[in-house]
Specification:
single chain; alpha/beta; Rossmann fold; 2 domains; 5-stranded parallel sheet; Glyco_tran_10_C
């Protein structure tokens, strides 16, 4: 590591082997893609002025590091870079499942599991993952297949934090409509309002359930949630974060712009 210009600390693993020697021109980057509830325990070995730069899901980070993003075509998309109307229509017509969710975190700060259980009393929800006995869903075969087969993905955040959007939200690029906990988390994001459904748009769970059932019966209304496909690219995680990763390079991001993060815990 002594030959590196920058060291990125991904705050989801314990840092018991923090460097004993630090070079004066070496940059320490704080990288976080999960809510702080799951990461505060890893700060106890880190001093307040340890990091030079923040790279997180927060829009006010030094380097913005989302799970994914919307990339507009601006009239420059090739045919294979966006969804055609026919492709969207065919995908919607063959969906037979109503709602689904895959979970590996069974007791969350947001208590999303309680909401799912209440909603499950009103509509059919297919649950997969470690929280459901005998319902494992491997990514390559089961997960992608079920996304294609269902109309809605319950993309409830495990914690409601400033700027945090779960990676499950981006399942919408499999042409499924995500249902999130709150709309306000997208206030400063460039996310079309009509691309998703928010629980807090409704007075109660019954009203939400009735609306999902209404969309199941009315595919014309359901299709309106895919208007964004006419404007944005078929991007994936690797493409949309290319620029973010490039910013770590001091040759691209000049050294004078880097600084000390005095208290990363307070920032998060």
């Amino acid at each position: 590591y002594l030959n590196a210009s920058a060291i990125v600390y991904y705050i989801r693993s314990e840092h018991r082997d923090l460097p004993k020697i630090r070079l004066p021109n070496q940059l320490y980057v704080f990288c976080l893609d999960e809510p702080p509830h799951y990461t505060f325990e890893f700060f106890k070995d880190v001093s307040r002025d340890f990091f030079n730069i923040s790279m997180t899901y927060r829009l006010d980070s030094d380097i913005y590091y989302p799970y994914d993003t919307f990339v507009p075509c601006n009239g420059e998309c090739q045919l294979d870079e966006y969804w055609t109307e026919k492709e969207v229509m065919e995908n919607v017509i063959r969906k037979t499942g109503l709602a689904m969710q895959v979970n590996s975190d069974c007791d969350t700060p947001s208590k999303r599991e309680t909401l799912v259980q209440e909603l499950r009393k009103l509509i059919k929800i297919d649950l997969y993952g470690k929280c459901v006995r005998g319902a494992n869903c491997d990514f390559e075969y089961c997960y992608n297949r079920e996304l294609e087969n269902h109309m809605f993905y319950l993309a409830f955040e495990n914690a409601v934090c400033k700027g945090y959007v779960t990676e499950k939200f981006w399942n919408l690029k499999h042409l499924i409509v995500p249902v999130v906990l709150t709309r306000r988390v997208f206030d400063k994001w460039k996310v079309p309002d009509s691309a998703y459904i928010a629980v807090d748009d409704f007075k109660n769970i019954t009203e939400l359930a009735d609306y999902l059932l209404y969309l199941q019966r009315n595919r014309t209304e359901y299709l309106k949630y895919f208007e964004w496909t006419k404007t944005y690219r078929k991007t994936n995680y690797h493409v949309s974060t290319q620029k973010t990763r490039a910013q770590i390079s001091p040759s691209i991001y000049p050294l004078p712009k880097w600084h000390i993060c005095p208290n990363i815990q307070s920032f998060m």
